[in-house]
Amino acid sequence: MNENRIQILEMLAAGKITAGEAERLIAALDKQPQAAGDSPKSKPKYLRVVVRSEEGHNPNDPSVVNIRVPMQLLRAGVKLASLIPAQARDHVNCAMREQGMPFDLSQIKPENLEELVDQLDELTVDVSQKYSNVKVYCD
Amino acid sequence: MIPFVARVTVRYKRLDFRIWIPLALVWLLLLPVVLILSPLFLIACAAGRVSPLRVLSVCWDILANTKGSQIEVASAGTSFSTYVF
Lengths: 139, 85
What we know:
The complex is a heterodimer of chains A (139) and B (85). Chain A is of the alpha+beta class. Helices cover 45% and strands 20% of the residues of chain A.
């Protein structure tokens, strides 16, 4: 039995609280660990792109490109899609259809874009070749 | 808020060069240019049938959220990095 529970029972025994109050307090105590367990996992703040290449250089000193983009910047960036003028949107739709992607940009709503960026949290892309490695992930 | 400081670091062999750029000053210097170009911006918005306020809001969002951006490039003993605060 934990300390808080003992304290409640002592208060009940001393007549400081009623049985009903004690019950409510114990119920609240029981809920506490659940609430702590339910706490959402911290969201990543950045999208990171790391490219390493050892080609043509000393393997001990590889070429590295490391880019960190705030997720908020991605969120702001995807809002640009809503600014595409109707005429340009038709051109884009047409070009995408020609490439085998029948996709209508006008169907994209800001909430869809938000969802898209939210899903990037889970994203990890790792491409490795003999001398080079590309990694995209959120941190 | 929009970023006010950026740091650029260049390392080449023994040279280690670091410069802090007061972006606040850059924004102030760019303000007259923005004002001069604003009629063109309004015409472009009218032509594209896009609300200028919406464009400004998105641009402001993008600018404000560049805080924390970082770019690092390193190759053969030379490295270059920028960090926006």
